[in-house]
Design brief:
Blueprint (H helix, E strand, L loop, with lengths): L2 E10 L2 H17 L3 E5 L13 E7 L2 H9 L1 H7 L6 E9 L2
Antiparallel strand pairs: 1-3, 1-4, 2-3
Helix pairs in contact: 1-3
Length: about 100
């Protein structure tokens, strides 16, 4: 079964740091065979708290998605956002 990384941002304090993170994170996503299904874009607020950004990435498996997240490359990108964004980040197994 495929694996998905779902990231829902609660707050972004620096668009500049987000762009810096995105460049490095994208390289890591590509290295682990991920495909962006959602990367920001237009959204409609229906329920719950409004999010400034949502990202969904598809991987060939749940294990590959977790391997991506734990990778040295992604963790280096992830560290760029510390103090600049609050988000919920999870790996989910598809059906």
């Amino acid at each position: 079964m495929k694996g998905y990384v779902v990231c829902v941002y609660k707050n972004i304090n620096s668009e500049e740091k987000l762009k810096e993170y995105a460049v490095k994170a994208r390289a890591s996503v590509e290295k682990y065979g991920g495909i962006f299904l959602i990367r920001g874009g237009r959204s409609t607020f229906n329920e719950g708290e409004k999010s400034p950004r949502t990202v969904v990435i598809e991987f060939s498996s749940y294990d590959k998605a977790n391997e991506f997240y734990k990778s040295r490359e992604y963790q280096a990108a992830h560290s760029i956002l510390k103090g600049y964004a609050i988000r919920q980040h999870q790996t989910i197994e598809g059906v």
